[in-house]
Amino acid sequence: MSLTRKIAKIAPQSSALFVCDIQERFKGVIWQFPSVITVANKMLKVSKHLDIPIVVTEQYPKAFGPTVQELDISDSALTMSKTKFSMFLPEVETVLKKNNTKSVILVGIESHVCVLQTALDLLENNYDVHVLADGVSSQNHSEIGIALQRMRSAGATITTSESIMFQLVSDSKHEKFKGISALVKEYMEAGKVNQILQKVGGGNASNL
After folding, report:
1. Terminal CA-to-CA distance of the chain, rounded, Å?
2. What is the pLDDT along the chain (208 residues), one digit of tens a residue?
3. Which residues are annotated as catalytic?
4. In angstroms, rounded to a whole number, what is the distance separating the alpha carbons of residues 10 and 13?
5. Cβ(50)–Cβ(27) under 8 Å?
6. Is 0.90 topped by the overall pTM?
7. Residue 162 in contact with residue 185, Cβ under 8 Å?
8. Each residue of 60-70: pLDDT tens digit?
9. ω before 110 within 30° of 0 (cis)?
10. Residues 155, 162: Cα–Cα separation, whole Å
11. Measuring CA to CA, how many Å separate 50 from each of 11, 32, 47, 76, 176?
């Protein structure tokens, strides 16, 4: 693994946002699902503001329904249903290659199934993967820390939505920084009460 890959820097022009299976039927089933939706919504706005391509998948929507109505995915580069757990499908790979993508920002569910397998497939195909710890979850919350540890061990970067936002602009003089700063302020209170972040960070850092 190269030094650059270990550093895992990220830039909007070579990135994509993956929204993994955030569907209606999972409401009331996934632990802290509203927080997952909130983080996904924030990152959708960030991606639109920075012109980052968005890829959305829906796991067997006949059973689990469409993407939740709270998320505006109308500007996605690709929205597709799947039966495979991983998002890394031929159609998705085509979008990544078309946009010369090097880095993928990953949010969604479940952390130990579809998110994990997506991250592993992307890493295997030489993409940098940035998993947002405050934006992934599972039905059993005890699975989350183990899944994040597994992804980190495989080479993924485990970060947060706010951290990645600042990393994407990198400088307060960036022409789109004001818009990002406004989004940080808009979602500040939601971040403070995000129990997923509280579980995997701070005093529970041993989970990672």
Report:
1. 21
2. 444 446 778 999 999 999 999 999 999 999 999 999 999 999 999 999 999 999 999 999 999 999 999 999 999 999 999 999 999 999 999 999 999 999 999 999 999 999 999 999 999 999 999 999 999 999 999 999 999 999 999 999 999 999 999 999 989 989 899 999 999 999 988 888 999 999 887 644 444 4
3. 21, 82, 114
4. 9
5. no
6. yes
7. no
8. 999 999 999 99
9. yes
10. 21
11. 10, 28, 5, 13, 7
The answer to whether the CB of 169 falls within 8 A of the CB of 177 is yes
In three state form, how does the secondary structure of the chain look?
CCHHHHHCCCCHHHEEEEEECCEHHHCCCCCCHHHHHHHHHHHHHHHHHCCCCEEEEEECHHHHCCECCCCCCCCCCEEEEECCCCCCCHHHHHHHHHCCCCEEEEEEECHHHHHHHHHHHHHHCCCEEEEEEEEEECCCCHHHHHHHHHHHHHCCEEECHHHHHHHHHCCCCCCCHHHHHHHHHHCHHHHHCCHHHHHHCHHHHHHC
Q: How far apart are CA 48 and CA 183, in angstroms?
A: 12
Tell me how long the chain is.
208
Residue that is written with structure tokens 């998320």 in the block: 71
129 neighbors 151 (Cβ within 8 angstroms): yes
pLDDT digits (tens, 9 = 90+) for 193-207: 999 999 887 644 444
Q: Which two tokens stand for residue 82?
A: 């799947």
Name the residue type at position 165.
M
Q: What angle do CA 50, 55, 59 make, to 5 degrees?
A: 150
